[in-house]
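> forwarded from #structure-qc
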């Protein structure tokens, strides 16, 4: 049994297999070709934080593959009344075939997985967002083919997305430039030292973006850190991805954002809505990439 708790839980061959499958499943979806290898399989989704894309993409995805889903929000379940995550894992995983969780600390997800009888998928934690980066790199592959040897510029907060990009850089062989304001730098993550072989740290976002093939950013305040919003708005004021920043990137650079976006904060409306932005493709590709992921975790490598 395999889980997907971090991007690095899969190896390069497996990630490339998922990209191939996502392409096949996307083609079938777009052409109304039914493909239901997960008939009667049930996905449980546990949300301890808000979601639009993750919920819709997983729910639509499992249904399209022939299965169905059930959603548990903390406030409406016994989790909200203090039932231990280990007990929740033991119970839920006796009743369903696969689980996706969105929660706070990675350790909560790991405790769930350690007590689960079925595969567990990280639908976002404070530390990582591996489903999003899977969809983002699939999007890059669709537009520009391989990401190997390319440069990705991460502008803004060192958050769950940036740490996931760093894991992907190591696994798939690309460079990550990260520009953060003082006090918000990348740090060793879960006891793992920063991978300096793939990471270059900048204080000036323009320098980080120079020559990059992807310029990407995210909200200045992630879910769970709302108390820091005012301080963060001040600290990140010079870290808006705007047209000037996109000009120094590679000519054919793509702009990416996992969404939801705050126009005028981490990205200008002009860039978000501009010709280099692929944010709506990234969002759609959550569906196709996660269908490939669920198929792989439940059925292994399928080539048909
Ligand atoms: N990008 C992303 O995970 O979006 P949601 O928070 O809407 O699920
Ligand atoms: N970094 C953001 C991503 C939201 C999809 C957060 O954790 O809130």
């Amino acid at each position: 049994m395999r889980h997907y708790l971090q991007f690095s839980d899969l190896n390069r061959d497996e990630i490339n297999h998922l990209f191939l499958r996502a392409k096949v499943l996307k083609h079938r979806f777009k052409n109304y070709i039914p493909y239901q290898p997960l008939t009667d399989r049930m996905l449980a989704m546990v949300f301890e934080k808000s979601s639009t894309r993750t919920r819709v993409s997983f729910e639509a995805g499992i249904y399209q593959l022939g299965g169905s889903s059930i959603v548990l929000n903390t406030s409406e379940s016994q989790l909200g009344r203090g039932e231990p995550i280990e007990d929740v894992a033991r119970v839920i995983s006796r009743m369903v075939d696969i689980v996706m969780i969105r929660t706070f600390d990675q350790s909560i997800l790991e405790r769930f997985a350690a007590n689960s009888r079925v595969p567990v998928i990280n639908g976002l934690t404070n530390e990582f967002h591996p489903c999003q980066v899977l969809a983002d790199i699939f999007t890059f592959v669709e537009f520009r083919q391989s990401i190997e040897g390319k440069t990705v510029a991460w502008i803004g907060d060192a958050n769950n997305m940036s740490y996931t990009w760093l894991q992907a850089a190591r696994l798939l062989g690309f460079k990550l430039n990260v520009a953060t304001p003082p006090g918000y730098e990348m740090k060793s993550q879960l006891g793992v030292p920063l991978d300096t072989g793939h990471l270059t740290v900048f204080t000036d976002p323009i320098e980080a973006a120079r020559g990059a093939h992807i310029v990407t950013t995210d909200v200045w305040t992630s879910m769970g850190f709302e108390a820091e919003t005012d301080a963060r708005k001040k600290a990140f004021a010079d870290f808006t991805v705007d047209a000037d920043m996109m000009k120094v990137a590679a000519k054919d650079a793509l702009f990416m954002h996992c969404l939801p976006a705050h126009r005028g904060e981490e990205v200008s409306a002009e860039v978000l809505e501009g010709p280099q932005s692929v944010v709506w493709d990234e969002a759609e590709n959550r569906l196709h990439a996660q269908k490939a992921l669920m198929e792989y975790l439940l059925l292994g490598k399928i080539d048909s």
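QC bot note: Residues 124, 159-161, 218-219, 222-223, 258 surround norvaline (ligand 2) (CB under 6 Å). The mean pLDDT is 97.
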